[in-house]
Amino acid sequence: MESGPTVVGDELSDIYLMASLAANKRQVLGNNFSEYYVDDPPRVVLNKLEKLGYRFVSMTGVGQTLVWCLHKQEDPPIRCIPNSYD
């Protein structure tokens, strides 16, 4: 198994998350889409994502590629309760 680079997103990915991972954007010759990648191995990327609140859901292999699925629970919305002063 290769140790990097690791693809971490596509052109529609959250730019703040990509910045948190120090990801670089590239377009590989022959592809009609861009992707974000980091030089870190998957283990390091998964550890960083866990610290950001993401949790591992599943993993599969596609050819010689491994794909991890992660999920981050959304924070509940902040509800404003009006003050009632009589």
Automatic annotation (TrEMBL):
Family of the protein in this entry: Belongs to the GFRP family.
Annotated protein name in UniProt: GTP cyclohydrolase 1 feedback regulatory protein
The species this protein was found in: Pleurodeles waltl
Gene3D superfamilies per the UniProt record, alphabetical: GTP cyclohydrolase I feedback regulatory protein GFRP (3.30.1410.10)
One MF term in the entry's GO annotations: GTP cyclohydrolase binding
InterPro entries for the chain: GFRP_sf (IPR036717), GTP_CycHdrlase_I_reg (IPR009112)
Compartments, record wording: Cytoplasm, Cytosol; Nucleus membrane
Oligomeric and partner information: Homopentamer. Forms a complex with GCH1 where a GCH1 homodecamer is sandwiched by two GFRP homopentamers.
One annotated Gene Ontology cellular component of this protein: cytosol
Keyword field contains Membrane: yes
Chain's role: Mediates tetrahydrobiopterin inhibition of GTP cyclohydrolase 1.
Keyword list, A-Z: Cytoplasm, Membrane, Nucleus
Recorded superkingdom: Eukaryota
Keyword Membrane appears in the UniProt entry: yes
GO biological process: negative regulation of biosynthetic process
